[in-house]
DNA sequence: CTGTTAGCGCTTTCAA
DNA sequence: TTGAAAGCGCTAACAG
């Protein structure tokens, strides 16, 4: 293991270590000729800055953390792309963590990020426990909530899930459905409870009782969860329409129902949420609620970096996007 | 920003900093009573070890890097899960990087990982340039190739892509196809060139000329690339069958062809590669080549950690899995 | 514009 | 079993 430090570079370039550091961090303060010499030495020696040393000395790293509920969900992949695109311009790195909707994993991820002394954290929290937030804050780590609305003391970028739930449900009701099922993950996940609230609101607006909506809760918001939900649907008797809290669930439901000989939308209407790319290519193209995923990641990152760069002058803001209904075959007879 | 260091913990527990460090790293060498006292102090103070300082002093971090071609591809997501599951048991972190099939981004990712002094790197390289590997090696970073066969001096875990290409093509030929198209990313991507070689082998076995296969190369191996390929297919005249280098491409092709009124498999047979979950749920369930994705990640990580733990006694090995044909509607009239 | 210098917080001998 | 002390490689004053 060859270790080339800033000292060797300095020696070879005939300058002091401090100058090498300046070339690395504030090149404009170094005379062009000197800079060139140092850069050559760096190249010749294959020097790579020791990030630990630099982080230790500088007090903070050039990395931010991104904690999502499910890396396997295209929704979060799109968010991550937005984050990446903003961050990579600024020579920062993104540490991507997956909480898998589990508070324990989320806590572990945050500990790792705290150990790494990341500058900030973008997080879609698994629940409403704000102690997480405070803990981070106390260590001087900036936090922005992604896809999770916040109140005054944090930045957040979210999409109106109540409106989305209303949109989806109103659409199903407009199609003639009267008995509905709502398939979702645990209600502790805010996206689930908000979308459900939206559904209830739509029911009320339509003058229907709240018990027109049956809840089917599954442990994971993916295709497997969807297949589980379909079993319940099949054994309990089909409703007129099914609203799934995300597209992965809806795809699983669709698949399992088809295999059981149930036809969508003839026998039951179906709508998902997120409008991931695969939904339009499904066996029955899936109606869904579209969200500005990439924008979510992009804007959240901009807010985070703004806060990092100027913690004092920064004013927290809560951004709320509006979702959009996309009608396809799965819900239109 | 409150900074709690090992010193404050030591003071509160009435021990020396060295002892706190021992509690953190070799708890068995500390008397149970002392240990308890220190652990309490850690908890009370909310101490989180400074990873930079510890990495700097220890010479290496408790993280490994994983560099994949496309985080948006479920294939790599499955691989990443395998990696995670192995690594999380050992109190290590995974830094997930996306090269997006670009050598420049790959180089940037590797520089970041080198800066972080990761213990090892799992990588699906974008091309056959081995200087990457050497560079890392010279710094004492262990490397394992994922989904990329290697020769004697590195560990690798891969799936036989030539066999897979043969499998897919033989299947199409058995269905009666005579004129074929192969849709893939740049041939510099080994997965593409190998699968193509397999296709040619199948052609030869069947006594058909190599020019029975038309190549359609697109810049990115995702659904968008697939749609691009479909345009070429439509304008150049449809072949009997299309073999796509991965399922994302195939899904894009399927979608664009359907929109143009072409029916699969009636007008043209189609097969993908990877057998991602979405493929079975597609408008026309997609035939594909199945690979042990999760196992790939798991085994690669085990090899990597083995090498990290005992670089001297470690013998490099190249693992090659065999792929499996999955026939669905898209290729069976 | 460049050099000197004092640590950042932790790990790890070595002694006690 | 525990403590004391010497840096790991780098950055950021400050001086020149």
What does this structure look like?
The structure is a homodimer of 333-residue chains. With 333 residues, the first copy, chain A, is α/β, with parallel strands linked by helices. Chain A has 3 domains: 6-49, 434 Repressor (Amino-terminal Domain), CATH 1.10.260.40; 60-159 and 293-323, Response regulator (Rossmann fold, 3-Layer(aba) Sandwich); 161-290 and 326-331, Response regulator (Rossmann fold, 3-Layer(aba) Sandwich), CATH 3.40.50.2300. Chain A contains 13 helices and 12 strands. Chain A has helices at 6-13, 17-25, 32-45, 51-58, 74-89, 103-115, 131-138, 161-174, 190-205, 223-236, 247-259, 277-280, 293-309, and strands at 63-68, 93-98, 120-123, 142-146, 155-159, 180-184, 213-217, 241-244, 269-271, 288-290, 318-321, 324-326. In chain A, strands 2-1-3-4-5-11 form a 6-stranded parallel β-sheet, with helices on both faces. Chain A is elongated, with a radius of gyration of 25 Å. The structure holds a DNA duplex (16 and 16 nucleotides).
Order of helices and strands of chain A: HHHHEHEHEHEEHEHEHEHEHEHEE
Number of domains of chain A: 3
Computed CA radius of gyration of chain A, to the nearest angstrom = 25 Å
Structural class of chain A: alpha/beta
> How does CATH name the architecture of the largest domain in chain A?
3-Layer(aba) Sandwich
What is the CATH homology-level superfamily of the largest domain in chain A? Answer: Response regulator
Strand content of chain A: 15-25%
Give the helix tally of chain A.
Answer: 13
| Assembly level | homodimer
Main β-sheet, spatial strand arrangement of chain A: 2-1-3-4-5-11
CATH class of the largest domain in chain A: Alpha Beta
Determine the fraction of residues in helical runs of chain A and give it as a percent range: 40-55%
* Largest protein interface, residues of each chain: A-B, 48 and 48 residues
Average pLDDT rating of chain A: 94
Instruction: Calculate the terminal CA-CA distance of chain A, rounded to whole Å.
Output: 67 Å
Return residue spans of chain A where pLDDT drops below 50 for at least 5 consecutive residues.
none
Which fold name fills CATH's third level, the topology of the largest domain in chain A?
Rossmann fold
